[in-house]
Each structure stands twice: as C-alpha cells, then as structure tokens.
Write a structure and sequence with these properties.
223 residues; mainly alpha; globular
Length: 223
C-alpha cells in the first residue's frame, strides 16, 4: 500500500514538473518569436505591429501561463490550505490583469490602424473567456475567501468551481490556438523558421492545457 502511495505521488510530481517545463518552453519560444523574428513589442510606437505583439505576449505568457499555474498550485507546492488559496487567488489576479491589458492593446492597435473590432471567432471566444474568467474569480472570492460561504455550501460548490475553472481554461487554450492560426494565415507563413516556431508554440500550448487538466484530474491522496 505504501509503495503504491509513493508511486502515485511520483506520478503527480512528474506530471507537474512536465507542465512547468512546458510553461518554460512556451515562454522562451514566444519571446524568441516576438523579439527575434518579429518587430519586438511596445505600448506606443510608429511601428504599429510592436503594439500588436504585446497581445500574444500578455495573453500567452500572462493569461494562460498564470491561470494554468493557479489551477495546478494545489498539486505543485506543499503548503497550508490558506497559503494555497491566497497563491491561487494572486496568480488568477495576475492572469486577469494581463488578460485585460492584452485585450486593451489589441483594441489600441486596431484603433490606430482603423481596423474593425470583434469580427473573428478568435475575438468572440477570447472576450467571452475574459468575461467568464472575471465572473468565476469574483464568485470564487466571495464563496471561498471573503466573506466566505458556510462550510457545507463551500463543499457543494467546490466541484463546480473546479469544473467551470477548467472549462474557462479550455476556452483560453482554444482562443490561443485560433489566434495563432489566424496570425499564421495573416503573415502568409508556409515554410521556414518562423512557421516552425509559431507551430511549435501552438503545439506546446495544447500540451500545456492537456497536462494542466491531467494534474487536476489526478486526485491528491494525502498521507
């Protein structure tokens, strides 16, 4: 029994480590893409695509990475329940902040080039995801932190909180994949270094989403 328990905890540990490694790989590839193969990024610039490039930077490295880490935090670090809750909240607040900023910069980019807003499936899913994420965060805060519901109510709502959190995270992954595909088409990429980098970013984001879900699906068996 103890051997099985040890093996099970090792499975969770390996899945969590691999998820972190995927996050690091995505971060490095996105930075390499935007800094070396694109124009870089800036809030204000005469090169308007520098403004746009903040959008994938903030949405992938901010919104998706931090929300993914927030989801698996309960399996990632050994800490008290309260510390885990606060870390979970802080990571989600960072994710929401970078997500809102990411939406702002793409609207700014569209305004400066007189491009219509919200005309693609990517934008529809993306804005819906941000709104649902904010609502989930608010409901989770008042239910589980302050003022906090009764213990029995929290126990009933916790599985739904986890389920809807995973659904919203899946929507974020879908948004990223459609955005990367959209960018690939707009840039008319076919073969070459940038095409490979963009495709690998999309593939790693998909794997990151799968492994976040896997880590959550593995129940935590405490000693």
């Amino acid at each position: 029994m103890a051997r099985d328990q040890s093996s099970y905890h090792m499975t969770i540990l390996l899945a969590t480590i691999f998820t972190h490694l995927l996050g690091v790989s995505i971060t490095l590839l996105v930075l390499y893409w935007l800094l070396n193969l694109r124009e870089g990024f800036a809030f204000t610039s005469d090169v308007k695509f520098k403004i746009f490039n903040l959008h994938p930077l903030l949405m992938i490295l901010g919104f998706i990475m931090f929300s993914g880490e927030a989801i698996i935090i309960y399996k990632a670090i050994p800490a008290t329940r309260r510390v885990l809750k606060l870390t979970h909240l802080i990571f989600h607040l960072i994710a929401l902040g970078t997500g809102i900023l990411g939406v702002y910069v793409v609207f700014k980019f569209h305004n400066e080039l007189d491009i219509p807003h919200m005309y693609t499936l990517h934008s529809w899913i993306g804005l819906s995801t941000i709104c649902l994420f904010g609502l989930q965060l608010l409901l989770g805060f008042v239910t589980f932190l302050f003022p906090g519901a009764e213990t029995a109510t929290r126990a009933r709502l916790a599985p739904w909180h986890v389920l809807f959190g995973l659904v919203i995270f899946a929507m974020a992954i879908v948004t990223a994949e459609t955005g990367i595909t959209e960018k690939f088409v707009f840039l008319k990429l076919k073969q070459g270094q940038e095409a490979l980098v963009v495709n690998f970013i999309g593939l790693l984001i998909l794997l990151f989403g799968i492994f976040v879900g896997l880590v959550v699906a593995l129940p935590l068996r405490r000693k």
